Amino acid sequence: MKTALVCGAGGFIGGHLVKRLKREGFWVRGVDLKFNEHAETEADDFVIGDLRDQTIVRTVIDRRFDEVYQLAADMGGAGYIFTGENDANVMHNSATINLNVLDACHKRNIKRIFYSSSACMYPEHNQEDPDNPNCAEDSAYPANPDSEYGWEKLFSERLYLAYNRNYGMQCRVARYHNIFGPEGTWDGGKEKAPAAMCRKVALAGDGGDIEVWGDGQQTRSFLYIDECIEGTLRLTRSDFAGPVNIGSEEMVTINQLARMVIDISGKNVAIRNVPGPLGVRGRNSDNRLIGEKLGWTPSRPLLEGMETTYRWIKGEIDRHHNRQSGS
Which residue intervals define the domain NAD-dependent epimerase/dehydratase in the entry (predicted)? Predict the structure, then answer.
């Protein structure tokens, strides 16, 4: 039986990845600071531990695994990443995790490791035009990420690829573009835009309004979780090291995303644009390289994923309300 280790298995993407690996017949160990808040883990073994601690890492990586997926990071949505208040933690915590995990894998002679980087590492100056952002993989240099989170991701990409060159490892690097779907964080300040929009609309009364940060004309693309997992596995098992984008090319403005959720809800809700942290003006996945190297690109329409995600978040809100009211 093949074995896999998922670092960050208590998170949104990690939880879905564990489920997929189990369906494929893997024995799976997960590790995180916490269990998933929204679903029971399907991992055969789950370790609650801090990967910044080398002792924990040695305990977790106590054998050879066929595949290791390093998703663990200190991260969140715009309200966490772009305020500047969390920069030291974001950089120190994530870099320490990557240094520890990669070194332990090397010492266990584990070859095949997936690392989840982010589109946040792309240069800010290539993402100022909301209608024509440049996120081709070869546009990464000269480097100028828009956040310290992006700088750490860029450093860690180079770290994993250096281990490939120097130690004959088979690390694979992907740049995720705004992954969303059910069983993800939807409140508390670390949620991404799709979940935040779903929560705001679900809580809004008919005839009310929701707040959207900035003028709402900033653009993004959003990738549904199932396609993220598919792309992750295809890359990990390929001969291509990356870095490669894993994202959707269906770009929308944040106001358009909000209107989409309002339409899904069937409510009469207005949009109120207010000041707030924004990040870059435009970002969209460029899928030419992944199509060339893996013979596959994401294709699920944003609307389908948002319908599923809204129903799940609305259900979570209703359950919380029912528990609080005692019904």
Answer: 4-247
Note the pLDDT tens digit of each residue in 301-316: 999 999 999 999 999 9
Distance in angstroms (rounded) separating the CA atoms of residues 200 and 192: 12
CA distance readout (Å), 266 to 5, 164, 216, 261: 42, 51, 21, 9
pTM listed for this prediction: 0.93
Domain that holds residue 139: 3-180+223-246
Q: Percent of the chain, pLDDT > 70?
A: 97
Could you tell me the two tokens for 237? 């098992």
Residue 138 maps to a domain: yes
Four-CA torsion 189, 30, 51, 185, nearest 10 degrees:
0
Q: What's the CATH code of the domain at 26?
A: 3.40.50.720
Token reading at 124: 């800010």
- Could you list the active site residues? 149
